[in-house]
Amino acid sequence: MIHQKEYREECILQTHYDVTIIGGGSAGLTAAHLAQSLGAKVLLIDKKQLGGDCLHYGCVPSKSLIHVAHVVQQARQAAQFGSSATYQCVDMAKVSASIQGVVQRVGDTEKTYTEGVTVTFGHASFTSSTTLLLNNEEITSRRILIATGSHPAVPQLEGLQATGYLTFEAFLIGPEAVNNRKIIHLLWGKAHALHSTGSP
């Protein structure tokens, strides 16, 4: 008869790496690419998808939206420069689709960072300073780098739940962002101010 503890130990696979990185965002991808280029056997772990906040919720989609704001502002001012172009409205559903297209293209280019790297998705937990348990597999590694980034912290404010709010994760990818024109207009204002000062 096999006891439960013995059965669990028999089921766990063991794999060894030189470098294991927890978090597949900008920092994790860069570290994985660098370590692999130096000849290390590398494991990159993320919960669900590579790219991190920068690709999916931050830098890439926000800059794409600000670019749209630049274009809209230029269309509004076209007559000042002798152009017959007219500004009518913004189709936010198309803007959202365009932004996700940019995210997809940037994500495709980032795949080069994982060439020669083992990529695994799941929740990793430490069992020692050099050992992780991931998807019923025991991972041993000479070095483990934690590059898990951040997540939104929702303040405990009275009435916030009833009023409703957006975190940065829902800001640009959820249906709320498409319909929240006040936020979009704030970004247009920011883009116009940056354009006026000559900032990129």
UniProtKB/TrEMBL annotation:
Residues 17-164 form the FAD/NAD(P)-binding domain. PROSITE patterns: ALADH_PNT_2, PYRIDINE_REDOX_1. Its cofactor is FAD. The keyword Oxidoreductase applies. Pfam families: Pyr_redox_2 (PF07992). InterPro entries: Ala_DH/PNT_CS2, FAD/NAD-bd_sf, FAD/NAD-binding_dom, Pyr_OxRdtase_I_AS. The keyword Heme does not apply. Keywords: Disulfide bond, FAD, Flavoprotein, NADP, Oxidoreductase, Redox-active center. Belongs to the class-I pyridine nucleotide-disulfide oxidoreductase family. This is FAD/NAD(P)-binding domain-containing protein. It comes from Dictyobacter halimunensis.
